[in-house]
Specification:
With 213 residues, the chain is an alpha/beta fold. The chain is built from 7 helices and 9 strands; from the N terminus they run αααββββαβββαβααβ. The strands form 3 sheets. The protein has a 4-stranded mixed β-sheet with strand order 1-5-8-9, sandwiched between helices. Strands 2-3-4 form a 3-stranded antiparallel β-sheet. A two-stranded antiparallel sheet has the order 6-7. Helix 2 runs parallel beside helix 6 (156-171) and helix 6 (156-171) packs across helix 7.
């Protein structure tokens, strides 16, 4: 009998909890469109099989002003430390591909903004005296100044459009809160006018302009 890897065991566990790893065909477009708002030499883009947990952990993350994830998000409200962002797994399998809360806590960030473009990343368990235990809080512990996250499952295509619009407004000098508001108003005037497509996105932390160019 073939021995399961750590990644396969975790994937099986999450599937048994009701999580579904559907393809995200528009996530690549989302990242490519966002990258166009910055000088090519100042952006590192990892798509598909290159978006690996091992790569992320090996990078000097404290040098990045913005860290953007477009992937699956796994929410475990019963055991918050099992919540995770799902990245790719390479053939070496040095990592399981699930960037869990305990691992995010050990990252060293100095990002002006972290974007969690994934399902339900803004939710968590409410602890008396502690507040909401979820992914945004852990990214603040890791060093982020602001976090954009979501309150419910999101649509892949409409999210790529919304994110592209947010970054366009940021590049025009709008504050983070203004850029999100402007992008949502634009969605209201499109075929994605229903709040399901845009209202899930919330900003926590610093709401001012980006401090990176």
């Amino acid at each position: 009998m073939k021995q399961q890897t750590a990644g396969e065991i975790l994937r099986e566990f999450y599937l048994n909890q009701g999580f579904y790893f559907a393809p995200l065909p528009y996530s690549k477009k989302e990242i490519r469109d966002i990258a166009k708002n910055f000088p090519s030499g100042e952006v590192d883009v990892f798509l598909g099989g290159k978006a690996q947990e091992e790569t992320l952990k090996s990078m000097p993350l404290a040098e990045y002003g913005i860290v953007h994830f477009a992937c699956h998000g796994l929410l475990d409200e019963q055991v918050p430390f099992r919540s995770a962002l799902v990245l790719s797994i390479d053939e070496d399998k040095k990592e399981d591909g699930f960037l869990q809360v305990r691992e995010i806590y050990n990252l060293r960030l100095n990002a002006d903004m972290v974007v969690l473009s994934a399902c339900q990343t803004g939710r968590g368990r409410l602890e008396s005296g502690e507040g909401l235990l979820g992914l945004p809080r852990i990214f603040f512990y890791a060093g982020a100044k602001s976090v954009i996250s979501t309150l419910w499952p999101i649509n892949d295509k409409s999210t790529s459009i919304l994110m592209h619009s947010i970054y366009e407004h940021l590049s025009k000098g709008e504050s983070k809160s203004q850029a999100i508001r402007s992008a949502k108003i634009k969605m209201l005037n499109s075929k994605y006018a229903h709040p399901f497509y845009w209202a899930a996105f919330v900003l926590n932390g610093d709401s001012g302009p980006l401090t990176v160019e």
